[in-house]
Structures are given as C-alpha cells and as structure tokens.
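pinging the channel bc i need a second pair of eyes. not urgent but kinda urgent?? the chain im working w is below, pasted from the shared doc
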Amino acid sequence: MARRKIEEQNIRKLTRVGNQSISVTLPIDIVRELGWKEKQKVVVKRIKGGMEIRDWRK
C-alpha cells in the first residue's frame, strides 16, 4: 500500500463492522501521542458539527 500525501494523512473512511456498527481507523501517530493502547476503552460523544473521542475514566 502506498503512503498518503501529508495533506491526505488524516482523511479516513468509515467501514462497516458486522450488521450494526461502523468503524474508523485512527492515525497511529495520534494514538501514540495520546498513549492509547489496543482494546482501550474510549468514550464517544456527539458534539455540534461532529464527535469527540476521549479516554474512558472510571
């Protein structure tokens, strides 16, 4: 797979997973910067104009 151009690096596609879910991949550099790990819980919140993804805190 070819590398994306810098200006296209954060453009992502939505992908169907199963029958009722949609997923989106996150840029690995952002995930590493946040210190997130695989299977980590996150909170998805609807905000005006989009959504917000935050680390889940107990």
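so The CA atoms of residues 10 and 44 lie 18 Å apart. and Helices lie at 28-34. — does that match what u expected or am i reading it wrong
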